[in-house]
Amino acid sequence: MKAFLARRLVFLLFVTFAVSTLVFFFIHLIPGDPVEIMLGETAQPSDRAALRAALGLDRPLAAQYGHFLSGLVHGDLGTSIRYHAPVTETILSRLPATAELAGAAILIAILIAIPAGILSAVRPNTGFDHAAMFVSLLGVSMPTFWLGPLLILLFAIRLDWLPVSGRSGLSSLVLPALTLGAALAAILSRMTRSAMLEVIHEEYITAGRAKGLPEPLVILKHALRNALIPIVTVLGLQIGALLSGAVITEKVFAWPGIGRLLVDGIEARDYPLVQGCVLTISVTYVLVNLATDLLYAAIDPRIRFEESP
Amino acid sequence: MKRHVLLLSAMLPFAAACGGSPRPDARTIVVAIEQEPTTLDPRLAADAYSARVSSLIAAGLLRTDRDGRLVPDLASRYETPDARTFVFHLRDGVRFHDGRPLTAADVAFTVKSILDPATQSPKQGAFREVSRIDTPDPHTVIFRLSRPFAPFLTAATIGIVPANLGGRKADAFARAPVGCGPYRFRAWETNSRILLDAYEGYPGGAPKIPHAIFKILPNDTTRMLELRKGSVDLVQNAIPAYAVKFLEKDPQIRVVSRPGINFSYLGFNLEDPILSRREVRAAIAHAIDRDAIIRHILEGLAVSATGILAPTNWAYAADVETYDYDPAKSRALLRAAGFPVPDKPGPPIFSLSYKTSTNKERIAIGEAIAQSLREIGIDARLRSLEFGTFFSDVRRGNFQLYSLTWTGVTDPDILYTAFHSASVPPEGANRGRYRNPRLDAILDRARTITGEAERRKLYVEAQKILAHDLPYVPLWYGTDVAAMRRRIENYEPWPSGDFGGLPGATIRSGGAAP
Cα–Cα distance between B440 and B245 in angstroms, integer? Predict the structure, then answer.
């Protein structure tokens, strides 16, 4: 177990290094210039040069990269060009909003998808099964920039129950979380259904029933637990998609999260901010995957993280 | 059925608890803006929303009125003994929002700090000519310029900040500014809202509605929906043309429009061997059916343009060459330029790359123009690029055709920035690399004259040259559109989406919420 964790930690360091290198060069190589954006078109070349020097943008790319890496090693992501504030601080101030939204979306997805998937698997090819799978197909197909306004029209304008946008308490979380969670719920319910269908015809399920175990216990304890591995895998992978999907949802609902920070940063060519945001998202992704792997062992005792002799 | 009832009753307390929607009260106007300002320091404001919001907080010596004319604001009057000397007399008894009196030292500090490279101000260029600032008494400021520079008066609209920022740090000031303007800063909730309060001490009179909230709503659809719900009172120049007619149908919403000054154009690269020929540029100008684009894509919310200066500008020249939609004439012009175009549409004779941003409306316009060009035998290849990339290409001359919009132009010296040979990037905005010594001489001279009538004569001549030479095809002036809840009264849209009409707006009494 320790060896496994150590290996994964090394892997995490490697991913962080690779991602930061890629992001650094991509953002610096695409056209566009933060100095131009800050000073406007009428600035004199001498003023541009002065600002470029102040931001360290006049140095060779390799030197800038070295400076960025050495900062990274010390946990310093630099200063945002657009906000004139430390990148770490800027990102940390937005992280709670994104975490709140992603957490709520996952919760909604699990609460809808797992029961729907189980019921569909238990009663395959019934009216409920067809309806649930049709709705989930809709959920997968609906883009968030369309579903979001649709939910706003119904719940915020027609019914007047919830605010349209913004982040002001629990009521404002419902619609963005529902929008973001919908696609995840759809994928998850289909996954749950097929995983359960596979397990349900196993001999140990028949054995459990033959022993006279009550049906809910058979389904929830014996079947679901064995079906959980693929479900957890999909969930872990989807959290990455959730973070990128949040960019659009955050824009539609004017949610002050890290996705909008990233997009605004790209538009302003705020190099340090973009690097910081992408790094945060990718490290989160790697950590979530690590958590997923650890969860495997908890779900299925046959999985052990040990070196084979 | 039973399950439905259960679900509904489970949601009811929730709905009741949040009251559905936080609608603004009778003392607050909520304005939706597309983007968050990057700063509220008037000296640093480079983007439109930083400028629009910070100008409500920090007033300048002069301001532009609704017709784009310069009028006194913190100055009671000004004199220009010659084009190198500008004397401003401050109003008596003006105080900053924090209670400190406004003096000439504050004005001098504002301009000196802009010129200090450490401030990193985008306004440095406008004050470059200032060689000395004298403050003979606390109410008089004299700017002496190194050479005659008439457009300096427009620079005098810059918001005045307190000397040494009243002891605040520059970064803190940019997030919580102090000024003498109609609104006092209250709070800035990052990426969410900016809250302002009416300032009783503003010399032009306090705004009639005591509180103003700027809500940052980057999504077009969300802005409209907030307005329809009533949680936003006002959206100005931030509604897509197609959406305006939907809002007009809503009985709770009033849409007010007024011919604007935002000038859209098709720019040429004059260093391109094909486009360097005037016949080709004129052929392209005659090929574009502007009225059809205005009618079908812009829903009538634009007026055909003759040049960069709008008809409301004091230096506007009406009597210039214009280019009507006439494909036959286009073909004749191309033939005159040595391109054998058949009379009937056929295979293209040459192709041009046409760059634009990723804005949906701009792409639709670009496609319409490309189609028009195809009809006269030019294969225009539309490329839609992310704005930063697009603008960088435009600056570096890496294009053949592009379209963009000039916003908020009030000083005719814009002709210098856009067309003088000394303004080729990185110096200025002559992105098409247009060079005409005769025009250069006229624009140079116009800068040295303060008499408006004489200045106007020169600018009229310059506009005639440009209309003939066609470094741009003038397309249209965008109409200013404000959509507001019916409870808002006396609000008038201002040129280019400025919020100059905000202090005069009132809320209908007794009509707080619909």
Answer: 44
